[in-house]
Every structure is written in structure tokens, then in C-alpha cells.
Write a structure and sequence with these properties.
Elements (H helix, E strand, L loop, with lengths): L2 E2 L6 E2 L14 E2 L6 E2 L12 E2 L15 H4 L21 H4 L5 E4 L4 E4 L4 E3 L6 H4 L10 E6 L2 E6 L6 E3 L2 E2 L6 E3 L4 E4 L2 E6 L1
Antiparallel strand pairs: 1-2, 3-4, 3-5, 6-7, 6-15, 8-9, 9-10, 10-13, 11-12, 11-14, 14-15
């Protein structure tokens, strides 16, 4: 069920912290649980709060295939040669293919496959459902031969590889040992 952004009136996910279309930070009435503009709810007069600070309005994610909801898809072609070794990267890492994205601080482990979409409406909707600063369709992981890439697909809050923000729709090569951040959610690329 989508709701309308109070600023641009585009349809967005009801658990968003920012509008996926115009980028506006969203405010919600803690009483009515609806998005609003200004300082007070037009329905009940309650003071609006930032959606990112309000914990009681997120909807349950849609059920998906069990393996996707657990974030445990098994990768294919893990141990093919990768090529050059990056500074600070062990020989084992440089020879391995990316197979997982791991966010240790949130206990998330995602299996990678070509065409995976990162975001609240992407390939792992239940994993990203509680991260309202991650766009509905935030980034895409692709594979061309032995080369894996990540592409920001017009996210509101950006995709970063090793601290560098990606330009939208410009693929960036990734290897085991790289750090990828989707808005504020950081992952390590692992075999």
C-alpha cells in the first residue's frame, strides 16, 4: 500500500523517511499516523515528528520467498580468479569472487546474484523494510563475465563504494574487501 508524499504528491512506501521522488524529509503525526506538512497535523493538531524518529508507523513487509526473506541466497561461481590485488587486501580476498554483502552491525548477510536490486522494494524487501533512508529501488548489483558492479539507480541518499559516492546510473566495479554503503547502511563485500 503506497501513500502520497505531502510535498510532491508522488506515491511512496509508507515506511519511508524521505520521499523517493523529491527527496523531502518526511514528518508524521504520531496520533493519526499520517504524513503531514508544517508543524502540526491538519487532522488532529498534534505536533508532527520526523518519520525517522517515530517508531510506531511502519507496515509489515510483504512476504517473499523464504530464502529472500532470510537474506540467504547462495551465490554462484564464488571461486573464480578476480585479477589484481588491492592495497590492504589479502591474496585470498583478491582471488575470490564477491558472493555476499555483510552488514555485521545489523546481522545481515545477503547472497549476491546478477541483477539483485537493493532497496525496500528490491530483491530483499523484508531485509530493508526498516531502513527508511534506503530508497525503494536504491542500487543494482550486476555481473559481466568475472566483473561485479554496483550501480546507484537514482537513490535519494546515495550509494558509496569505499567512501566515494557513485554517480547515478554509472556502474562501479566491486571486489571482495570493498565497503558499500547504501545511504547510512554499510556492507562489506565477502566471498
Amino acid at each position: 500500500m503506497l501513500v502520497k508524499c505531502p510535498k510532491c504528491r508522488c506515491e511512496i512506501e509508507p515506511d519511508s523517511y524521505f520521499c523517493d521522488q523529491c527527496g523531502a524529509e518526511l514528518y508524521i503525526c504520531p496520533q493519526c499516523k499520517i504524513f503531514g506538512r508544517g508543524k502540526r497535523c491538519t487532522q488532529c493538531g498534534t505536533e508532527l515528528v520526523k518519520a525517522s524518529e517515530f517508531q510506531g508507523y511502519a507496515v509489515e513487509p510483504q512476504s517473499q520467498d523464504q530464502s529472500q526473506s532470510q537474506g540467504q541466497n547462495q551465490p554462484q561461481g564464488q571461486n573464480q580468479p578476480q585479477g589484481t590485488q588491492r592495497p590492504g587486501q589479502s591474496q585470498d580476498q583478491s582471488q575470490s569472487q564477491p558472493g555476499h554483502l555483510v552488514a555485521q552491525s545489523h546481522h545481515i548477510r545477503l547472497g549476491l546474484e546478477a541483477g539483485v536490486i537493493i532497496g525496500r522494494r528490491g530483491s530483499y524487501p523484508s531485509v530493508f523494510a526498516s531502513f527508511g533512508d534506503v530508497s525503494g529501488n536504491h542500487a543494482r548489483i550486476d555481473k559481466n563475465g568475472d566483473t561485479w558492479t554496483v550501480t546507484d539507480i537514482g537513490s535519494t541518499n546515495g550509494t558509496f563504494v569505499n567512501g566515494r559516492q557513485l554517480q547515478p546510473n554509472m556502474p562501479q566495479n566491486i571486489q571482495v574487501g570493498d565497503t558499500i554503503r547504501f545511504s547510512t547502511l554499510e556492507f562489506q563485500v565477502e566471498p
